Amino acid sequence: MKTHVDVKATVESKKWFYNEVVREHFFNPKNLLKSEEEAEEYSKEASGIGQVGSPACGDMMKMWIKVDSETETIVECKWQTFGCASAIGSTSMLSVMLTENKGMKVEEALKIKPQDIANRLKGLPQRKFHCSVLGDKALRYAVNDYFRKSGQSDRVIVDGAKIIDKILKITDKDIEEAVLEGAVTLEDVQKKTKVGIHDKSCIPEVEQLIRFYQEKYLS
Amino acid sequence: METNTVYLDNSATTPVDQRVLDVMLPYFNEMYGNPGSMHSKGLESQSALEESRKKIGDILNADSDEILFTGSGTESINMAIKGVAHFYGKNINKGKHIITQKTEHHAVLDSCEFLEKEGYEVTYLDVDRYGMVCVDDIRKAIREDTILVSIMYVNNEIGTIQPIEEISKICKEKKVLFHTDACQAANYLYLDVKKLGVDLLSLNGSKIYGPKGVGILFLRKGVMITPLIHGGGQERKLRSGTENIPSIVGFAKALEIAQNEKEKESERLKKLSDKLIKGILRTIPKSFLNGHPIKRIPSNVNISILDVEGEAILLYLDDLGICASTGSACTSKTLDPSHVILATGLPYEAAHGSLRFTLGRFTTEEGVDTLLEVLPGIIKELRGISPVNLRAEDFKEYLSEENKKISLKVAKNN
Question: pTM of the full predicted structure?
Answer without folding.
Answer: 0.86
